[in-house]
C-alpha cells in the first residue's frame, strides 16, 4: 500500500466502525485530487461522503458544528496552502471550544486532513508547510505522518482523539512511499516521537518529507560519494547520529527529544517551512532551556528560507540532503 | 447604449430613493396596502405570510441574455451591440489565438517542458467578449483562466511564454509562480494568485482607489473575474458587500463554466446561480450566454457603463462550459462523460458561432480562416521555441522582492548562508551543479560579490 491508499484504508475503517462519521471537502466525492477518498462515496453513500461548496472556512465551521453534536467530522482541505481561510475557525473556534465552555462543549470529533509540503514544482501556493502557524493554538493537535503505516495508524488515532486534530499528509509521499500496511484497525499514539535510528553523537529531528532527505544525508555522511569525500573528514564518517521523527508537532514529545539531546549534546532540526518562528524555533528554545549544560553546540535549524517558495528556485529553497549533511558536519565540528 | 438614457436616469433615481434609509415619512408606492411601512425603511407592512426564494417575481429562473443563435444568426428582436468589422475581426482573431496558444502549452506541459498549465477551451467568448467591452486601462483582477484578456490588451506571446517557462524575461513573477500566473501593470492586470477568491474584496478596494485618483474617477472601473466555484468562498460575499455598500465601481464577472475541478455547479449552490446573489447586495445584475461573444460584449459594456455611472458594484454571470480538463493535473473523464464534452463542443461552440456571424456579414471567409490558423500556429510555436532555450532569472532573485526598502537581517543572513553552501558544494554536488546551470549567470552573481548581491 502506498500512502494515499493507507489514508483511504483508515478512512474506510473510520466510516465502518463509527456510524456518526462523515467525510467532506472539495472534490472528495470522486476520490479527491490526491485519490485519498476514492470509492468511499460509492461504498458508504453520498450522505456520509460528500462534496462541499468551495469554502474552507465553511468546511471547518461545518465540521465544528458536527463535532459539537458529538459526531465524527473528517474534513479535507484540498491543500495545506489553502487552510488559511479556515484559520479563524481553527484557531479561534476549534481550539477554544472546550475551554470557553468550561468543558461543557468540545469538538474532539473534528479531524482536518490536508496535503502538505513541497513536491519540487509547486511554487508559492502548492509547497507550503504551515504547521508552525498552529503552534500557538493550544487546544489543537497537529500530526504529520512519514509513511503509509504511520499515516493509517496516526490518522485513526487522530480521528478518535478527544481533541480537534489537523492531520497534514506530505503529498510527495502519497505515491512514492510503499509499505506492507496491516489491513486491520490499529492506532499509533499521538505525541510520541519515533527514534528511527539510535545514535549517541548528534540528534537529527524532523517530520514528514525531510526525513527522507535526512536519511540520504546520513548515508552520505558514512559513505560519501567520491565528489563529496573531500568535504567529509574521516573522523566524522563514523559519527553516530540519532534520527527522530517527531510525528506529532503539537503537543510535541518533549521527553523523547530532551532525553535524546541530553545523550548526544547536539541537535539539528530540519523543516521545510521558513526559519523565523518555524516549529524549530519553539523546539530549540525548549531544548536550550532543558538541556543547557548538556549542549556541546548551538541548536541548528536547517529550514526553508524566510521567503515564499519561488517555483524556479525550489531546489535551492528546500532543505535537501546536502544542506542537512552540511548542518550535521558543522554541528559535529563545533 | 441599449436603453434610452432618459429611462435609465429615471430608474437610477428610483433606485436611490428606494434604497435611502430615512426617518422621514416615505412616499407610499401605489401598490401598498393600508398598513404603512417599517419606521426606518421602505419595507411595506403586510398581513400576508409570504416566503420567497427567488429574485424573479414569478419564481422563474433569471433569464439569460443572448444575441446569436447556435449558427451565428441574431435572434429575432435581439439587441445587437454596436460593432464594426475591424473590431469584430480583432475579437475573432483573439478568440482563435487563445485555443491555439492553449494547445501548444498544454502539449508542451505533457512533454514535461513546463510544470503546469490551464486551458480556457470553451470560454473564449466569455473572456474575449468581456475584454473587448472594457477600457484597456480598467484594472483587472483575474482568477487564472483569463489570459485572453491579456492577449486582447497586447501582452505579447513572448511574455506569455516567458511566464510559463519561468525564464529570465518573465516579468510577471520572475519565475516565482507556477505557469498561468500572469501579471502586468502596463496592461492593468494584477498578478494572479492561486488562493481562490482573494481577488474579489481586493477588487472592491481597487475600484475605490480609482475613485480617489482624479484622472481615473468616473473613467475606470476595477474588473474582477472569478469562477462559479470561487464564488462560494467567504471572500466573494465580502467583496460584493463592500463594492455595493462603500460603494466602489467594481465590475464582477463570474464565469459559470459548470465545474470547479470535479464539482459540478449543481453541488456548488442551491440557488439560482451566481446572478441571484447580486440583488441581495442591491447590485445591478445580468446573466448572459457566455458562449455568445456579442451577448457578452453587449452585457459587459452596459454593466461597465452602469458601474462607472453609479460608482457601485455590478455583477455579470456568464454561462459557459469548461471544455478542457481543469488543469494538466486533472483528468476530467474521472467525473464526467467524454460524450458530454464532445456534445457541448459540437452543439455550442463559441468560436464557430461568431465565425458564422462574421461570414454572414461578409467579414470573414474560409480562406482567411485557413490563413489565420496557420499564421497563429506559427507565431505561437515561434514564440515558444525562442523562449525555450532561455535561462531562468539569476539565482539571487530567490531572495528579492520579499520586502521593499531595507532588506532585513534574516534574509541577508540566509542568502549569505546559501552563498557559503554554494561555494562549498556548488561544484561537487551534482544536483546543485546541474541546477545552477539553468540560471542566468549560473549563480556567479551570488558567489562573485555576495555582499552586494
Ligand atoms: C482557497 C483555495 N481553495 C482551493 C483551491 C484549489 N482549487 C484550485 S482551482 C479550484 C476550482 C475552482 O473552480 P472555479 O472557481 O469554478 O473556476 P474554474 O476552474 O472553473 O475556472 C480549486 C478547488 C484554491 N486554489 N484555493
Ligand atoms: Mg468553474
Task: Outline the structure in words.
The complex is a heterodimer of chains A (334) and B (453). Chain A folds into 2 domains: 3-173, Thiamin diphosphate (ThDP)-binding fold, Pyr/PP domains (Rossmann fold), CATH 3.40.50.970; 194-333, Rossmann fold, CATH 3.40.50. Chain A is built from 13 helices and 12 strands. Chain A has helices at residues 3-17, 40-44, 56-68, 87-94, 97-100, 148-160, 173-176, 210-222, 234-237, 254-264, 279-291, 314-317, 321-333, and strands spanning 22-25, 49-51, 73-76, 110-116, 141-143, 165-170, 194-197, 202-206, 241-245, 248-250, 267-274, 300-304. In chain A, strands 2-1-3-4-6-5-10 form a 7-stranded mixed beta sheet, with helices on both faces. Chain A has a 5-stranded mixed beta sheet with strand order 7-9-8-11-12, with helices on both faces. In chain A, α1 packs parallel to α6 (148-160), α3 packs parallel to α4 (87-94) and α8 (210-222) packs across α13. The longest helix of chain A has 15 residues, at 3-17. Chain A starts with a helix and ends with a helix. By secondary structure, chain B is α/β, with parallel strands linked by helices. Chain B has 2 domains: 85-388, Rossmann fold; 395-452, no CATH class. Helices cover 40% and strands 7% of the residues of chain B. Chain B contains 14 helices and 7 strands. Chain B has helices at residues 5-19, 85-110, 124-133, 147-152, 157-165, 199-211, 234-245, 293-310, 338-347, 350-360, 366-388, 409-425, 430-436, 444-448; strands at 139-141, 222-227, 250-256, 259-260, 263-264, 284-289, 314-319. In chain B, the strands form 2 sheets. A 5-stranded parallel beta sheet of chain B has the order 1-2-3-7-6, sandwiched between helices. Chain B has a two-stranded antiparallel ribbon with strand order 4-5. In chain B, α2 crosses α3 (124-133), α3 runs parallel beside α8 (293-310) and α5 packs across α11 (366-388). The radius of gyration of chain B is 25 Å and the shape is globular. The N and C termini of chain B lie far apart (56 Å). Classes of the chains: A alpha/beta (334), B alpha/beta (453). Chains A and B meet through α3, α12 and α13 of A and α12 and α13 of B. The structure holds thiamine diphosphate (TPP) and magnesium ion. Magnesium ion (MG) binds next to β4 of chain B. Chain B: InterPro entries: Alpha-ketoacid_DH_E1_comp, DH_E1, THDP-binding. Chain B: Its cofactor is thiamine diphosphate. Chain B: This is 2-oxoisovalerate dehydrogenase subunit alpha. Chain B: GO terms for molecular function: branched-chain 2-oxo acid dehydrogenase activity.
